[in-house]
Design goal:
Length: 859
């Protein structure tokens, strides 16, 4: 009786059948419950209906599995019996017990929960959407359920819920997008497929304005293209296609945040997946079609996406990238608002791209921007120019000869005369100037105005400060003459072998660094008489392999068609004598070689003077040779003599540098060895047990001397002096500490140590202070160091008296005297090599002729 009351209004027989393990019995009991619920509604017996639902809720949450299955089918039967009209008020009570069963470990319970939920939702319909968040989460989890039957049941339920959502007016789309956004990055294929299917559903409903939510989900959708399941990838492509159609701006539709979408597309355009890259470019191309010049504020992002992939990847992507690139070019106008600086950064980054097509496209963009927005691009030209010069050595001929490159570099022609970028590029890469130097300079001359190129390079190469700034060693008093010589040879060879290049006084001035180059320019300009002044000076020049190579090249040029007029001048009465003398001088410089034989035969073929008197004053110089009236030959020869002296002194300076480095090493080694002599004194102190008979003066004076010389070395930036005196200061400090532990006169030694600390502080203040300029600081410390050096060298003399009295050299070690003498001699010569006045004077020798005089040719 109690059981009947507990399950009332259900009878004990119905409850037993409803909770039976056989499905058929449970189904039969459910039919009875359905009929019973319908009768309650017909008779308006809501009290018993409430009791019925309560009993079924208890059964659906019971611990026993079969009981829960009976409760689920009973709740579904109740909903069917009530119908749509009467079930809606009880929707929550019918749904919540079913929701709880989806977390059941028993797959059969989950399956019957799907079946029950399907039947209930089918009855209550719109009322179920009040619990949409729970429904969506349940469907999300069921989509990846390990049991296939459960997944099949969830698919039916999912389709039903989608139908209800689509049919509901005013559905909360924002809530759905929030749920999708939270789950869009799932890596499970089943979950991804579920999310993609819901996105597709929202896209098929015309009333849904989903475009405004694209920035929130677009990245996750593109990520789904990387899924290993073909079905997921195909569904994702379909969704992306539909989303792209929704991007078209229309009246009455909220605007889409294109900027956020483009930022996502930039990332996806560089994906490792071909499909992802192709679709991202397709999106960007279609966005350009839809929005036109409104996308130009995002120009840098578009370029970042398409430039690396031109002519690479799948054919579809190539076509799309080219089409998008062309479309963007056409959109850009004179007054278009574009982010200039970000765009420039993108172009700079891709000028050195590994793919030739990307470099070509980047050059086209620079040309285009420079042509229509030159004012905005002008301030960035200094950043473009060095990289454009590097492209002169581009291995791809299409890049080197492209019209875009020509246009861009031509627009920067004024910058060439104000910059050493080309020279610096050659200076930094010896291999480049040797292998492609002529080709690069020739290409620059063809693209720009050759006169401007030659004049600017002549000015830069002829300026010592410029060539010194290219050198890494800024303390070198001579420019990098070897580099200058290479450049002059390159320019001279171009000038001598190309008839279209102009010739002028700038070219002559430029060639003053190389004698044979200057001589060849005399030949080119038909200034043979003035060239005779150069012949006596050829004997004063070192005959090197490079010089002979240049002479050989000149002989070959004389025999070339371009200098045919020079050979004809051997028949001209006005030119024959000086030209023959000039060629004979070259012949004397040459060893017995093929060039020697060629030139000798040419001179032997020259007839006697005045054979062709009729030619006098009738010959015309070649069109490319201007009048020599503007060339100041006397000043040119004087300058040539000065440059020759500089080259000679530079050779001597290089030799002196080698000697200085060697002497620096030996002097450093000897000085450190001298410092080690203090160990002998300390050893004697240890044997005696006291410092009696041994003065502290050598240690004190040497340590103070090291302090001052260390400061002097810092001012002079002499690494040798800094190192030696730094090491010496460490040694003398150790000796003084040891002496302090053994002496009985500690008070006196304390005063000396205090004095040493004061001297250290004063030296530091002099070095770092602003009261004196650099020269005054150097002179002050130089005088102090000189006096201390003399005192230090003479300090062992304090022990001479004891040597005389005891007739023993124990207090004045012989090794100390020898070390002092060796070190003094080496530092004396080092002082001469580095031209240090105080170092020489402290050793009682004054040499009045400094190396600075030698450097300017006063020898």
């Amino acid at each position: 009786m109690s059981d009947n009351q507990h399950h009332a209004p259900l009878s004990q027989a119905i409850v037993r059948t409803l909770t039976d393990k056989l499905y058929e019995k449970r189904k039969a009991a459910a039919l009875e419950i359905e009929k019973q619920a319908r009768d309650y509604v017909r008779n308006d017996n809501m009290v018993d209906l409430e009791r019925l639902i309560k009993v079924l809720e208890q059964l659906a949450t019971a611990p026993n599995g079969n009981t829960r299955k009976g409760g689920l089918i009973g709740l579904a039967a109740t909903a069917i019996g009530l119908g749509n009209k009467f079930a809606i008020p009880y929707a929550q009570r019918l749904l919540e017990p079913v929701f709880a069963c989806f977390s059941d470990a028993d797959s059969r319970v989950r399956y019957f929960a799907c079946e029950a939920l399907y039947n209930i939702v089918k009855i209550v319909k719109m009322a179920a959407l009040e619990h949409f968040e729970q429904l969506f989460d349940i469907l999300w989890k069921l989509s990846s359920d390990p049991d296939q039957n459960v997944r099949n049941g969830s698919e039916l339920l999912d389709r039903l819920v989608k139908e209800i959502v689509v049919s509901k007016h005013g559905f909360d789309l924002e809530a759905l997008i929030l749920l999708i956004r939270e789950r869009i990055y799932s890596v499970n294929s089943s979950n991804r497929r579920f999310i993609i299917s819901w996105l597709y559903t929202t896209l098929t409903v015309p009333e849904f304005s989903i475009g405004q939510y694209f920035p929130e989900v677009i990245d996750g959708v593109f990520k789904a293209l990387e899924d290993p399941s073909p079905a997921v990838r195909e569904a994702t492509i379909t969704v992306l296609t539909e989303m792209l159609h929704k991007l078209e701006p229309k009246e009455g539709i909220p605007p889409v945040d294109i900027c956020s979408i483009v930022n996502v597309l930039v990332v996806q355009a560089n994906s490792q997946t071909d499909t992802t890259r192709e679709l991202s470019v397709q999106w960007m191309d279609q966005i350009t079609v839809y929005y036109g010049d409104r996308i130009l504020p995002q120009l840098s992002s578009f370029l970042l996406s398409i430039l690396p992939h031109l002519e690479s990847g799948e054919q579809g992507q190539i076509a799309r990238s080219d089409q998008l690139n062309q479309r963007l070019t056409e959109l850009l106008k004179f007054d278009s608002p574009i982010p200039v600086e970000p765009t420039v950064e993108v172009l700079l980054a891709h000028l050195r791209h590994e793919r030739m097509e990307t470099r070509m496209a980047t050059l086209n963009w620079i040309r285009h921007l420079h042509s229509i927005q030159s004012n905005n691009m002008f301030r960035y030209m200094d950043r473009f120019f060095p990289i454009l010069l590097e492209l002169l050595s581009d291995p791809a001929d299409d890049v080197l000869i492209s019209n875009s490159w020509t246009y861009v570099l031509y627009g920067l022609a004024r910058s060439l005369t104000k910059s050493v970028a080309l020279l610096k590029m050659f200076k930094d890469d010896d291999k480049l100037i040797d292998e492609r130097g002529i080709h690069i300079v020739r290409q620059v001359c063809l693209l720009l105005e050759p006169t401007d190129v030659f004049r600017s390079l002549a000015l830069l190469l002829g300026t010592t400060s410029t060539t010194m700034s290219l050198s890494m060693n800024t303390k070198d008093p001579f420019p990098d003459l070897q580099f200058v010589a290479k450049m002059v040879r390159i320019l001279n060879q171009i000038l001598m072998t190309t008839s279209c290049f102009p010739f002028g006084s700038d070219s002559v001035a430029r060639s003053k660094m190389i004698p044979i180059c200057l001589l060849s320019l005399y030949l080119l300009s038909q200034n043979y008489q003035h060239a005779l002044e150069l012949i006596p000076r050829l004997s004063e020049i070192d005959i090197t392999f490079e010089l002979l190579t240049e002479v050989d090249r000149v002989v070959q040029l004389i025999e070339s068609p371009i200098l045919a007029y020079v050979r004809m001048d051997l028949l001209h009465p006005d030119h024959q004598k000086p030209l023959s003398a000039l060629l004979s001088a070259l012949l004397m410089l040459l060893p017995q070689s093929d060039a020697f034989a060629v030139l000798q035969k040419r001179l032997q073929a020259v007839p006697h003077l005045a054979v062709l008197d009729g030619m006098k004053k009738t010959g015309r110089p070649p069109p490319s040779v201007p009048s020599s009236a503007k060339i100041k030959f006397k000043e040119l020869i004087q300058h040539f003599d000065k440059v020759t002296a500089i080259r000679l002194n530079a050779s001597r300076f290089s030799s002196i540098n080698i000697n200085r480095n060697l002497l620096s090493f030996t002097a450093t080694t000897s000085t450190v060895g001298m410092f080690l002599c203090g160990l002998q004194i300390c050893s004697r102190i240890r044997k005696r047990g006291s410092t009696d008979g041994t003065g502290v003066a050598p240690f004190f004076l040497t340590s103070v001397s090291c302090i001052c010389w260390l400061g002097y070395g810092l001012l002079r930036r002499d690494q040798t002096v800094i190192f030696v005196n730094g090491v010496g200061l460490v040694f003398q400090t150790v000796y003084l500490i040891y002496y302090y532990t053994k002496t009985r006169l500690k008070s006196r030694l304390n005063r000396l140590i205090f004095l040493e600390m004061v001297i250290s502080v004063i030296t530091a203040m002099v070095i770092n202070g602003d009261l004196l300029n650099e020269n005054e600081k150097e002179n002050l410390l130089g005088v102090v160091c000189m006096l201390l050096n003399i005192a230090t060298i003479a300090s062992p003399l304090v022990d001479v008296g004891q040597v005389v009295r005891t007739k023993s050299t124990e207090s004045l070690p012989f090794m100390l005297c020898v070390a002092n003498m060796a070190v003094c001699v080496q530092w004396l010569f080092y002082g001469f090599l580095v031209d240090d006045f105080y170092m020489k004077l402290s050793l009682f020798i004054i040499y009045p002729r400094t190396y600075k005089q030698l450097a300017v040719g006063q020898v």
